[in-house]
């Protein structure tokens, strides 16, 4: 790092002190000073993966501050869908081939408002429920795309919406049950309309809860069931193609309906399971739909 010419393999260096940095994509850098005398020197460096499984982190924004809190999820296989739901069938095996990071919480108004102020975008309405650490609502799929594009530019990392398969894989938290808590009893576990006994949802009124108010799933993710439904990348189709076994998103030319997952505070408990899905126009704004983001990990 402290020599005038750019170092290339095979370049002969004279005796002296050298500031050495060793790096590899997907690994943390190591940097230290070494002393080279009048003979060859062999030095061994051990690099650690930058994003080990379960690591929690926040990417730095070039304009200052930090991005959403993320956690690294290990690749794996799972059964996606539910044969008992017409729009979520058939159940089929899907392989998530690469590790990825996903936001621990739904994107909050604080996080989204920073983007809106930086880009001159309109701030969405909070429906009178409050901003701050409440999940952002009234954002379109197109808004979500602009937000992840801004995050990518600010951090130098590749942020995007989750594919539908990645979302369900993460929401299940390694559990094969429809609900990550491995039973159908949702009382006290989520913010939903009926069956959750949520303090934020009454007989004639409903509202979002601050993110992280309820217990996290085994992967450390909050509010994957209820609170707000979440946009994913995929074009919406009524049901699955059973021969599609990869986690890549479904993309169709001219698509206008995109998938939302997770159910919301306006849904009953049977519609906040990890397999529940519906389609929404990409320009639609709804009080019960928000965002969760994914960051691709260097391989």
Q: Which descriptors apply to this entry?
A:
about 300 residues, alpha+beta, paralog of FGE (formylglycine-generating enzyme), 2 domains, five-stranded antiparallel beta sheet, 3 helices
Shape call? elongated
Q: Rg, please?
A: 23 Å
**What's the SSE pattern?**
EEEEEEEHHEHEEEEE
Number of separate domains? 2
Read across the widest sheet, the strand sequence of neighbours is 3-4-7-13-8
Q: What structural category do the secondary elements indicate?
A: alpha+beta
Q: What ranges have pLDDT less than 50 throughout 5 or more consecutive residues?
A: none
Give the CATH architecture of the largest domain.
Answer: Alpha-Beta Complex
Give the CA-CA distance, first to last residue: 25 Å
CATH superfamily of the largest domain: paralog of FGE (formylglycine-generating enzyme)
Question: What is the helical fraction, as a range of percent?
Answer: 10-25%
Could you state the oligomeric state of the chains shown?
Answer: single chain
- Give the count of helical stretches: 3
**Total count of strands:** 13
How would you characterize the overall build of this protein?
The longest helix has 15 residues, at 141-155. This protein has 2 domains: 1-50, no CATH class; 56-296, Alpha-Beta Complex (paralog of FGE (formylglycine-generating enzyme)). It starts with 15 loop residues before the first strand and ends with a strand. The mean pLDDT is 95. The protein has helices spanning 109-119, 141-155, 164-172, and strands at 16-22, 30-36, 56-57, 70-73, 76-80, 92-96, 100-103, 159-161, 229-235, 257-261, 277-281, 289-291, 293-296. It is built from 3 helices and 13 strands. It is an alpha+beta fold and 299 residues long. The chain has a 5-stranded antiparallel β-sheet.
């Amino acid at each position: 790092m402290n020599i005038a010419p750019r170092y290339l393999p095979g370049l002969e260096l004279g005796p002296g002190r050298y500031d050495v940095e060793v790096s590899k994509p997907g690994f943390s850098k190591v940097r230290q000073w070494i002393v080279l005398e009048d003979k060859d020197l062999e030095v061994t460096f051990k690099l650690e993966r930058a994003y080990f499984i379960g690591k929690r982190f926040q990417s730095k924004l070039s304009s200052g501050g930090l991005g959403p809190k993320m956690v690294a999820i290990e690749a794996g296989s799972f059964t996606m869908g539910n044969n008992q739901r017409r729009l979520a069938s058939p159940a089929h095996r899907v392989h998530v081939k690469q590790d990825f990071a996903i936001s621990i919480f739904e994107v909050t108004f604080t996080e989204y408002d920073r983007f809106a102020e930086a880009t001159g975008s309109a701030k969405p309405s909070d429906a009178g429920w409050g901003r701050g650490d409440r999940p952002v609502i009234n954002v379109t799929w197109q808004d979500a795309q602009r937000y992840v594009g801004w995050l990518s530019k600010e951090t130098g990392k590749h942020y995007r919406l989750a594919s539908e398969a990645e979302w369900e894989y993460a929401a299940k938290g390694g559990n094969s049950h429809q609900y990550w808590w491995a039973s159908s009893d949702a009382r006290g576990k989520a913010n939903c309309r009926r069956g959750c006994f949520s303090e934020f949802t009454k007989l004639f009124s409903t509202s979002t809860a601050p993110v992280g108010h309820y217990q996290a799933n085994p992967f450390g993710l909050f509010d994957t069931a209820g609170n707000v439904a979440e946009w994913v990348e995929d074009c919406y189709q009524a049901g699955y193609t059973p021969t599609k076994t990869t986690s890549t998103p479904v993309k169709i030319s001219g698509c206008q309906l995109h998938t939302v997952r997770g159910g919301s505070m306006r849904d009953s408990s049977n519609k906040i399971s990890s397999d529940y899905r519906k389609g929404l126009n990409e320009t639609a704004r709804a009080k019960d739909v928000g965002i969760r983001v994914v960051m691709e990990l260097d391989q």
